[in-house]
Every structure is written in structure tokens, then in C-alpha cells.
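Predict the 3D structure for this chain.
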Amino acid sequence: MSDLVEMTPCAGLVPVTAGALRLSEVEPGRMTALALYKGQAAALDRALAEAHGLGWPAPGRVIAGEGGAVQWFGLDLALLIGPAPDAALADHAALSDQSDAWAVLRLEGPGAEAVMARLTPLDLRAGSFGTWATARSDVAHMVGAVTQAGGDAYQIMVFRSMAASLVHEVTLVMRRVAAREGGV
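Done. Predicted structure below.
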């Protein structure tokens, strides 16, 4: 009989550095999709505030707090990241555990925006995509999500099955950007 060993999506693939750039895995904790029931936005916002000190995010935004975050993920859809969802949330949204579905990486350091500009069609300039802005988008030809996590840092999410491909693609671009800046 085989012994199963729990592994993160990027186990053995990261961390990766190139010059001042660093790619590492984020272990976000529990990830729960919240699919809003019709007409329940205000009630879910209150329930999130009472249970988790968070709220329902505006499109393209993340509400982050000490105990976790709520990330906009599409029309009437968000991810509760970190805590297990309070049971009261189920009165206002369909809940679906997504914890094992996603690989989450953090790219940081001077030049991170230049790396991301080569991986996604999003306009990530500070005036267009500020801190805690998020978008579902192509990332190196994979379906994913990009969040500006402050300063020179981005959080990148793709389906778990694409983790190795994402690390490979980001690493290539990191090395090219670092080489241009003389920091390989």
C-alpha cells in the first residue's frame, strides 16, 4: 500500500530568484468560493463583516484584513481566503471549497511589474491597477488571476494543474528582466 504525502501545488518548484526578483509560493489557507444569491449583496456584506471583519468586494478589488481576505472573482462571485467560512454566509451565497484547486504564487522585487507586463495583457501601471486591485486574466496563456499585493509585489493564481507551467514561464521572464537590468 502506498503512503500518500500531502504536497503544495508548487512543492519543489519555488522559491526562485533572479537578480532582485523573487518568486515564492503562498499558502493562503482555506479558499471558499462565495456565489452570491440574487438580492443578497447587502446581507452578505453584513454577514462577512460580522463573522470575519471583511466585506463584499467591489469588482476588481480585494478586501484584506488580519484574519483573511475576500477577493472579487467575477460577477457575483468572490473568494474568501484564509478562514473557514462562518455558517451564516450560506444564507446569502452558495459556498464551495476551492482550497485544493489553485496554485498561488507571489512575485516581488524591483522589476516585478516588467515581468508581469510580459505575462498578462492587464495594464498594471499604478494609476490603472493599484494596491489590492485584482483581475481574472490570461497569465502566460493560462486562465488565472492577478492581484497587486502592494509595492513591487503581485499575487498570481492559476489552476493547481498548471503550477509547474506557471513557475516555468515566470522564471524565464524573471531571468530575462533581471538580465536587462544587469542583475542575473
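The longest helix spans residues 163-180.
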